[in-house]
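Friendly challenge for the regulars: who can give me the structure tokens for this chain first? No prize, just bragging rights.
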Amino acid sequence: MSALARLLLSPPACRDSGALRRAVAGRTILVTGASSGIGAATARHLGQAGATVLLLARREAALDTVAGQIRAAGGQAHVYPANLADPAEVQAVAAQLRADHPRLHAVISNAGRSVRRRAQDGEARQDLPRLLAVNFSGPAALLLALLPALAAGGVVVNVSSVSARHVGAPRWSAYQGSKAGFDLWLHAAGTEWPRVRVASVYLPLVRTPMSAPTRAYRALPALSAEDAAQAVTWPLVRPVVRAAPWWLRGVELAGLLAPHALGRALGALERLERRRGARP
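First reply, four minutes later:
Bragging rights claimed.
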């Protein structure tokens, strides 16, 4: 990605491998959603920087591949397969993590799921309950179960989206609602955890397997998973509570000052896309 594209798209990011090593070497860090995309890239960055990386996701074979890449580069990685949408699995994997690693220095809460569909069309497919389980209640339950293991000065990084910070967009209600809900929950709960710092990284569009099915996004500028991983590690290097692209404040302000106008504009873009898709 060009320097200009990074300036326009990326939140603050740690591109200094030495600074990242000084921040994480010898520390134990859990990365959820680590089987592909942003999570896998973040895990590799942390492993290369000397952290002991704990990889959590549903697909054990994919986790084994990422762990193998980290070990081949000289790092340490351990695999913990679990489905965050299953409360029993969340409690079981949390107990195993606490037993194997009584002290955690950071949790990268990256696991998530995206569905682009109208709210009424998603009702029969249970879009909202499914996304709430993966994007909100599962990660929240995992953090609460792991809280006793988080060391003083520990960090929880929420890998969020710019879409969680502005007015709702058509066909993204379940995704935006679940991501925004977890983000608010985490920062509210974080006020109750005096020895733990919480931070959110609000990413723009990233080229990952999760975003690939949305055809409308294929022509838009986007970060790579590696670029996103450098942004995700920023709160481990600097004591920030928020990392976001420079332009997000403007979007948030527009949502406060002119929410109806912004909503109408997004709706118009949605209708234009539908008309283009309907043309032969």
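The CA atoms of residues 161 and 203 lie 5 Å apart. Strands lie at 28-32, 52-57, 76-81, 104-109, 150-161, 196-203, 242-243. Your move, everyone else.
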